[in-house]
Design goal:
21 strands; 5-stranded parallel beta sheet; about 675 residues; Rossmann fold; alpha+beta
């Protein structure tokens, strides 16, 4: 996954004819020199522009090229001539040897969002016939759709940019503009940060980390993404389990039943699920549903075997039964009223417990904030109830005695105490809620039994006023009632059996997800990631020594396994370095990423571009060592391009001893050319 910059051409048609420049680049170090303000950076900016990467410099929709390509150019004689038309062409080669030439207009009748790709070396072989195709850039879809240039360029480079998390939306593509700054440092803002001045306006979360992870080929983000996806799927499955459980529980409650041996959370023991059952509230307490069904069926068999009595043969029994049922109904009604009263009291208790837990959580947060302030300040305050724990202002009015004020728990003990209080009250709340659910079931059973009692009373009274020869309606009603109970409870058992099957399926999915999550590395980084970061740390240290880094001992430098930025003894390097050392560190980091690609599988394209690397008056020795180090890229089949306006008297002796391609442009970069071909 490499590419090479082969040739660059900039052209401008002026009132006095064509001006332009054509540059050729080779493997290894390429040193492009021109004097200040002569157009050296125009060449590198032109390459950024022709690749549609101007938003890597600025979110503004304007051409990031100087006036020499947009409005007027200055000749070597100092004259200003108006630019009528201009364009940029760049010849590229990818890792499989495919060569394309990219053309983009600057000043033209054509829209500058149009990029033309010629499939062949149109600059190196201008006489050749090459297929052309047009693409669009800097418009929605340029990175995703077939006709988008960045979609083409991504495929040409052999990349597959990941989908990452954004701030406004969950999934967003890691755009090319966020990746190129790791190997393409432009002059204006590229030297302002380490590892790179990566655009943030794409609203990508932790865009620096995501870009480094991609270029270095780290598995960290993929591991994190998989873990998050698995956690999300586990949460969804847990929610489905809870929803199913509560729905089933509510349905059972209406039948004065409840789930036994199965909780509201998914479990990994499939055998335990098969042991779950339904219990029914009866006069004898909570009875397993299957046992209750057997009892009802036995009772029905007994009744079915007996002959249905007539009223005249059953009057004493009917009267006795009626008196019994009236008494029973009164007893049930008293129980119901008592249970309902207890229910209301306990609901108030649950509400009070909920408010108490919320208050304790607020107290816990306040104490943890105080603890955080103590940790940040490095001062251990003594907590006192007559002073505000945050601002230390005295509290004039307190209800505590002076003796009480004298013994105050340390903040750590206070936090532990509050946590234990929360746990205790949460346990009480859970028990109260369980008791309330049981109470709701009993209340449903009482309502059911009371309804059945009133029905029986009505049929018994009807028997007493019926003709003597009539069949006893109460006996028939009793049989019908039992049959209905058997039917209803059988349906309930069938419904529960289906639910158990669903819970078993959810549990199997749950087990699979847990296994997949446990298979991921315990750390965010894989062993391969750690090896790459360790190697990058070694390269950083070696180059820091070579470049004369002095702010810290080079051996103390490392790459953070959290932020992927340089750090010393676990602390990220910020403003502690001198300006020149910051530049040296920037060199080392970005050149380190290039060298890392030689020994590890990464997504680095194998090219590195520095525009004016000698920033902040870096020493001649440091700059020389940078050039020498960069020149070793040729042996690895890599490419480095440096543009500089360094004093030629200093530069030429250095590059004269180094294996590199020298591109020395005297005068203005854009010179008169014979034609626009």
């Amino acid at each position: 996954m490499t590419f090479k910059l082969r040739r660059l051409r900039l052209r401008a048609l002026t009132e006095r004819g064509w001006y332009g420049v054509e540059l050729g680049f080779t493997d290894g170090l390429n040193v492009l020199w021109a004097d200040n303000t002569m157009g050296k950076s125009t060449c590198l900016q032109g390459m950024i522009y022709v690749l549609g990467l101007e938003r890597m410099l600025s979110p503004r929709r304007e051409v990031p090229l100087p006036h020499a390509m947009t409005s007027h150019l200055i000749t070597d004689s100092g004259e200003s001539v108006r630019v009528v038309e201009s364009d940029v062409m760049l010849e590229l080669e990818n890792s499989v040897g495919t060569i394309v030439t990219v053309h983009r207009p600057v000043v033209s009748k054509l829209d500058d969002r149009l990029i033309t790709v010629q499939f062949g070396p149109s600059l190196s072989e201008p006489e050749g016939q090459h297929r052309t195709q047009q693409f669009f850039v800097r418009d929605p879809g340029a990175a995703q759709r077939e006709d988008g240039f960045h979609h083409f360029l991504e495929n040409f480079l052999g990349w597959e940019l990941p989908v990452v998390r954004g701030y406004e939306k969950e999934d967003i593509k890691l755009y090319l503009e966020t990746v190129f700054p790791l190997f393409w440092v432009e002059q204006k803002s590229g030297w302002s940060s380490i590892p790179a001045a990566i655009p943030t306006y794409f609203r990508i979360r932790e865009v620096h980390k995501r870009a480094v992870e991609f270029i270095a080929g780290l598995e960290a983000y993929e591991i994190e993404r998989k873990r998050e996806q698995l956690n999300q799927r586990i949460n969804v499955l847990t929610s489905r389990w809870e929803t199913k459980w509560h729905g089933l529980s509510q349905l059972l409650n209406r039948s004065a039943s409840r789930i036994e041996a199965l909780g509201t959370k998914p479990i990994v023991d499939l055998k335990a699920i098969t042991k779950a059952f339904v219990s029914v509230a009866t006069q004898d307490g909570w009875t397993p549903l299957d046992e209750h069904l057997r009892s009802l069926k036995s009772e029905l068999d007994t009744i079915s075997q007996a002959e249905v009595p007539v009223v005249s043969d059953n009057v004493p029994a009917i009267e006795a039964k009626l008196a019994e049922m009236i008494s029973h109904a009164e007893s049930l009604n008293i129980q119901r009223l008592s249970l309902n009263g207890a229910r209301q009291v306990k609901l108030a208790d649950v509400d009070a417990l909920t408010r108490r837990i919320q208050t304790l959580r607020e107290d816990l947060q306040k104490n943890q904030d105080v603890q955080k302030l103590q940790r940040f300040s490095g001062v251990q305050w003594s907590l006192s109830p007559d002073r505000c724990p945050t601002c230390e202002q005295g509290l004039q009015d307190t209800l505590l005695s002076q003796n009480a004020l004298a013994s105050i728990m340390p903040i750590e003990d206070n936090i532990s105490y509050i946590k234990s209080e929360i746990r205790m009250f949460e346990d009480i709340l859970r028990r109260e809620e369980e008791e309330n659910r049981a109470r709701e079931g009993l209340l449903s059973q009482l309502n059911r039994d009371l309804s059945e009692a009133y029905t029986t009373i009505r049929t018994l009274r009807a028997d007493l006023v019926a003709p003597a020869t009539s069949v006893s309606a109460s006996a028939i009603e009793e049989r019908i009632l039992i049959e209905r109970k058997i039917r209803d409870f059988s349906e309930l058992q069938s419904l529960f059996d289906d639910a158990v099957n669903s819970f078993s399926a959810l549990s199997e999915q749950y087990i699979t997800l847990l296994q997949q999550r446990s298979a991921l590395p315990d750390d965010e980084l894989s062993d391969s990631d750690k090896a790459k970061l360790n190697r990058l740390s070694e390269l950083l240290r070696a180059q820091a020594r070579q470049f004369g880094f002095k702010t810290f001992e080079p051996d103390d430098l490392a790459i953070s396994q959290d932020t992927y930025r340089p750090e010393v003894e676990g602390f990220e390097i910020g403003f502690e370095t001198s300006a020149s050392d910051a530049i040296r560190l920037k060199w080392a980091y970005q050149l380190g990423l290039l060298e890392l690609a030689a020994s590890y599988s990464t997504n680095h394209p194998g090219v590195l571009v520095f525009d004016e690397p000698r920033q902040q008056s870096s020493s001649k020795v440091s700059f020389e060592q940078l050039l020498r180090r960069a020149a070793t890229s040729k042996g690895r089949g890599q490419q480095v391009i440096f543009s500089t306006s360094e004093d030629l008297s200093i530069l030429e002796p250095i590059i004269g001893e180094i294996d590199c391609t020298k591109i020395i442009l005297k005068g203005h970069v854009l010179q008169p050319i014979s034609s626009g071909d």
